[in-house]
Amino acid sequence: MNYLNERMLILHYATHADALITERMYALDPELKAPFQMSAASLMAALNLRLDRAERIYKNIQQLRHRNLHLELEKQGIGFLTRNDPHYPVRLQMIYDPPAVLFYQGNLSILKKTSPLAVIGSRRPSPEAVPIIEELLNPIPADELLIVSGLAEGVDGFAHKWALKNNVATMAILGSGFTHIYPPSHTPLARSIKNENLILSEYPPETKPQRWHFPKRNRLISGISKAVLIVEANEKSGSMITANCALEQGREVLAVPGSPLKKQAAGCLRLIQEGAKTVMSAEDIIEEI
């Protein structure tokens, strides 16, 4: 048993997947023993927390240390990776706030694919979205391609389904735990993905989706990818948040232009104005991945 991984798993649960607090704990003690020996007041002082937050974390640690989380996850068919695991995605290690723990279901080997491409867009896309995805992705060599998206309605779901249909590797990154797939209508799609591909989440399995989880999740979609392809997006949308994450992380942002008369095109047009690469063909994507 790797006791450091077990301690990191407990602290990840105790902090409700707060990567920055867990990182502070790790900086305080690389063996992660200290947080288990500290009072709530000590946690507050050492980690620069409000007292109420420190008290909740302290209480969670005391409760969780008596559970066998590793075994609980195993019984649910869920694996986990900590940041010191050799299988932890290298690109995520390089972002500002990588999760201390990633939970997964499916085939970890697809993380070795050398051309991970995030494909995201509107939850209420135009009828042109599917033909655009097919036109742009069909010519890309499939061997090393990995389609990354967020299992959302609209473009995300189309991208996952395109990958499954064409025997291309795909990965869904959730904004909830595995027992609360969101949207619920995509539960069968999630099941299809995990059969031969991969589902990831930084949230423990029982975590219900919350509105703030999804913007936070978007940094993982961009962070794990070489480039982010935005097919359609409103000017104020989750896709634009992901694009901003990508820029902060030094990832390429690729935008498909559309008619200025369409609200689904407004986000892409704005990104192109601000310097994103205009995508007119598959070649424009291949050059970046």
Automatic annotation (TrEMBL):
Keywords of this entry: Coiled coil
Domain Smf/DprA SLOG residues, every copy: 80-288
UniProt record similarity statement: Belongs to the DprA/Smf family.
Gene symbol of the encoding locus: dprA
One Gene Ontology biological process: DNA-mediated transformation
Coiled coil: 44-74
Pfam families: DNA_processg_A
Entry protein name: DNA-protecting protein DprA
Presence of the UniProt keyword Isomerase in the record: no
Provenance organism: Alteribacter keqinensis
